[in-house]
Amino acid sequence: MKIVRVQKDGEVFYAVRQGDLLKRLSEAPFERCAFTGEEIPVSAAKLLVPCEPTKIVAVGLNFAKHAAELQGGHPAPAAPILFLKPLSALIAHGDAIEYPAVSQRVDFEAELAVVIGKQCKNITPLDAKDCIFGYTALNDVTARDIQKIDGQWTRAKSFDTFCPVGPCIDTEYSPKGRRVQSVLNGRVMQDGAFDDMLFDIPALVSFISVCMTLFPGDIIATGTPEGIGPMRRGDTIEIRIEGLCSLINHVK
Ligand code: MG
Q1: Distance (Å, rounded) from C-alpha 242 to C-alpha 224?
Q2: Which of 101, 102, 141, 177 is the least crowded, having the fewest Cβ atoms under 10 Å away?
């Protein structure tokens, strides 16, 4: 199933997308899909961020070639590097990424996002699959100059609009053997294979759950492959994940 969250006539609701049609749900779909019977065309609704997380957990340096390309070069980490992005950074497919006045270098980072489906804590990698609701696309927008100045990542990763997510959550998706690309103004900039992740998705979900309780709707950004680069005002950036709906935003 492809799950979306939309706004229409002042109402916000979840729906299942089938082609150009939305089948409205009466509640969040994590436990079950309760259809209201109402069907509307996709074009009649505004797509929102497809879930309502309590947190966005992001993984740094999860591809060896990306770790190496950063200034100074980083060795592959021995354990996942975690950081958080604030909920105030979330924007939907089609919304604008706002270029902060205090940065001169704002980068795209194409990433696969895991959406958690049930509350979990201290789970093993083997049990991680049961906690995953589905997958969507995410752009871990980063003020690269501020990341270098600050020495840690909070401000660089946290500007308003720096976390585009969506447009659909695919509940049947498997990243195995698939690729992720960023496409800037129609040109492919990153092209990585999920099989090259240093820590795979069950390992990441387990590792994070040892630290913090994960709740339905929580988002895990699983890291970006090599090829990161800057965006400019007026650019269009697409996060294109093989087998998922593309996430497209523009920069203003
Ligand atoms: Mg990232």
Answers
A1: 15
A2: 101
Cβ atoms 53, 218 nearer than 8 A: yes
Confidence band of 156 (pLDDT split at 50, 70, 90): very high
CATH code at position 28: 2.30.30.370
Q: Do 167 and 47 form a contact (C-beta atoms < 8 A)?
A: yes
Same domain, 150 and 229: yes
CA-based nearest residue to 36, from 13, 20, 59, 55: 13
Residue indicated by tokens 């990441």: 204
Q: List the structure tokens of 67.
A: 């770790």
Q: Please state, in angstroms and rounded to a whole number, the distance separating the CA atoms of residues 213 and 211.
A: 7
Q: Quick one: 112 and 15 in the same domain?
A: no
- Predicted TM-score (pTM) of the model is 0.97
The number of distinct structural domains making up the chain is: 2
* Residues with Cβ–ion distance below 5 A, ligand 1: 109, 140, 224
**Average pLDDT, stretch 103-112?**
98
117 alpha carbon – ligand 1 mean position (Å): 22
Distance from chain centroid for Cα 165 = 5
Banded model confidence at residue 231, pLDDT cuts 50, 70, 90: very high
Q: How many angstroms is it from 230 CA to the middle of ligand 1? A: 14
The mean pLDDT value for 57-76 works out to 87
